[in-house]
Amino acid sequence: MHRLTTLLSGIFLVFLTSWLGLVAYPALHLGRLTPVPDPDNGGSFPPTYGGQAIAGQRVYATEGCISCHSQQVRQSSVTTSDVDRGWGLRPSVARDYLRDSTAFLGSRRLGQDLSNVGVRRPDAKWHLIHLYHPSAVCEGSVMPCFSHLFLIRKIQGQPSDEALNLTGDDAPKEGYEVVPTAEAKNLVAYLLALRHDYPLPEAPVKKNGAAK
Amino acid sequence: MSDHTLPHHDDKSGHLHVDIKAIDASVRLPVIILFGNAIHWLVIASLLSLIVSVKLIAPGFLGGVSFLTYGRLAPMARDLMLYGWASQAALGTGIWLMARLCGRPLGGEHSGGFGGELLRTLVISATVLWNLAVLLGTLAILAGYSSGVEWLEYPSWASAMLLLSFLLIGIWAVLLFDRRGTGRAVVAQWYLVAAFCWFPWVYGTANLLLVWKPIQASAQGPIQSWYCGSLLALWLLPVALASAYALLPRLLGSHLNRRNLATLSFWMLLLLGGWNGMDRLIGGPVPAWMTSAGVVAGVLFLIPVFMISMNLLGMDRKEAIVAGSISARFLLMGLYALICVGSIGALASLPSVSGAVRFTAFTEAKTQLWILGAISLPLFAVLYESFPQLLGRDCWSPVLTGRHYILTLVGIAMLISLLLLGGLFTGIALADPTVSFLNITSYSYPFHLMECVAQLLLLIAALILGANITRALAGDYLLNKQPRK
To answer: Hey, is A173 helix, strand or coil?
Structure first.
């Protein structure tokens, strides 16, 4: 035990147990999960992301959304409150994440769970205003403003279609408008694509379950 | 000075000549650089943590600026705590303890020669590289280049630099052990060898599969949890425990009663440590057996924790000696913190409790107690013990040292109890779907408010430590200069 090689082999073997179980097994098994076909329209579950949503994942990562938001609906054997709160129709499973570049599972819920935010809030305009100034649409929210993802610019001719419909203190000066940058639009596209509402063999969706 | 050269090996054979002065001279500069930089990162991390907690009660504070949003500052603070402070101080601790315990100067017997100089230059360059990696990684998060993986937010080039630098420093700790001049290896040495072997493995694997060449995301959850658990339980904690095993018996003028217990707890800790992070995935999108493994590991982890505590706290000790030694007090408090971490972890692993509190401040309390308590307190002990020996004089201001100790403990106790209580309240409310989410946010307001006070105390404590070490090192500079005038 007192020779380096003996000690190192002992350490190596003991360490191998958790490495095999928590790194090698997931890599070989969970990492090879494949999408299942969608019987209705020939697509697949989970559905693929559009180009904007893929770019939006980078914004989600760099803005550190994971610091406050989880993306997982837990199994009912542990808690039913995630489903009861309307955060999802069914518990999340590993296959749900196979289209993601990073699994943003999260460890803290200072804000709401986002695994089904696209089901709950399907309106892009709402998300844009919410990102620009959260308490404008969500009184009492502690979410910070992501106003740096927007531009305040002088209206040239016709106001832009994309300009946010802001009221009260948030409204820009007369003759100015607030428009989302590409980053804001990508992020919202990603948020709208977050929906684990399709059935999977290991996670069926109950027929009469409806998002609250 | 002879009876104060802690720790040193048990040289029972008597045929070995160990030159403590030569050993200290060989590691002096690297250890001082590592600890000095670690403390300035600690101050910055504490400041960021304070700003982050203020942002929870006043979301508009420093608002509207992209690089000062919560989502960027919170990971910056956490990573600085982990890599800037704890890991760097652990590197310093490892090198110093290893050289002392092995009775060998860094760079071998001919450390005075060219080879020794070359090696020291290499180690010092590696410490510079480490700090450069931490600095650039932090700035990258600030500028919006975070990888978005919790605890591994540094972009791939920064984490590669960190790993390279670790290998350049850590290899010497392992080589020192291989060339040790003393016969029987002590438990502290095992812990150090284990820790220094694991960090590259854990950090390398996790970065490779999550950041450098991300694996399909359906497999990322368990790997990420494994990383978080292993980083704390298999890299930082073993170093903290090595310092307790190496320093505490001699500080207390006592000896370990049961060596077998130390051996058994060492292997148990290693076996369970890697599974320890799985409580982050209880009920999550992983196979059911992983959830079960997480529950079992969380509860079983209590066994090595209690064995280690019994082993170290079971030594005879005189209160007068404890009161007179700041290092002994930090080490004992670190052990108490470890017992609390184990108990909170076991409690939080129970499925019913986890179901309620997993995403609340309760989890944060456990993480903070790991980093600030079980890991940082023993590292402080090593700092207070090593510097007077490395500098060859009594360098600490008793007043600053005493205040740092008190403020650190009060700050940690306050922060952890607030996070636990706040987490419990929000957890119970979250479990009841009739309570709206915004309502729950308003419940946690008073807790967040008080957390700011606790973070402020910890910042002041870090600043006092910074002043103390600046004074210690500046004193060295002045003493060196004086004779010339």
So the answer is: coil
Does a structural domain hold residue A119? yes
Mean pLDDT of chain A: 89
Cα atoms found within 13 Å of the Cα of residue B429, Cβ hemisphere only: 19
The reply to whether A39 falls in a domain is: no
**Which residue of B lies nearest to A107 if distances are taken between CA atoms?**
B359
Q: Which ipTM value was assigned to this complex?
A: 0.92
Measured CA distances, B230 to B67, B199, B243, B340 (Å): 30, 9, 19, 18
Q: Does A110 touch chain B (CB under 8 A)?
A: yes
β-bridge partners, A180: A150
pLDDT over threshold 70, residue B478 = no
Q: Could you tell me if B74 and B59 are in contact, meaning their C-beta atoms sit under 8 angstroms apart?
A: no
Q: Which domain holds residue B62?
A: 21-478
Least confident of A99-103, A207-211, B68-72, B182-186: A207-211
Which tens digits make up the pLDDT trace of A3-20? Answer: 778 888 988 998 888 899
Interface residue A170 vs chain B (CB under 8 A): no
The tally of domains found in chain B comes to 1
Whether B148 and A104 lie within 8 Å, measured CB to CB:
yes
Closest residue in A to B427 (Cα–Cα): A109
Q: Is A44 helix (H, G, I), strand (E, B) or coil?
A: strand
Q: For residue A66, what is the domain's CATH number?
A: 1.10.760.10
HSE-up (13 A, CA, CB side) for residue B81? 27
Residues of B in contact with A110 (CB under 8 A): 56, 441
The verdict on a CB contact (< 8 Å) between B284 and A72 is yes
- Which residue in this structure is represented by tokens 């071998």? B108
Of A22, A93, A143, the CB nearest to B285: A93
CB contact under 8 Å between A64 and B281, yes or no, is no
Does any domain span residue A203?
Answer: no
A1 touches chain B (CB under 8 A): yes
Q: Which domain holds residue A151?
A: 47-193
The whole-angstrom distance between A68's CA and the closest CA on chain B is 8
pLDDT number for residue A209:
46
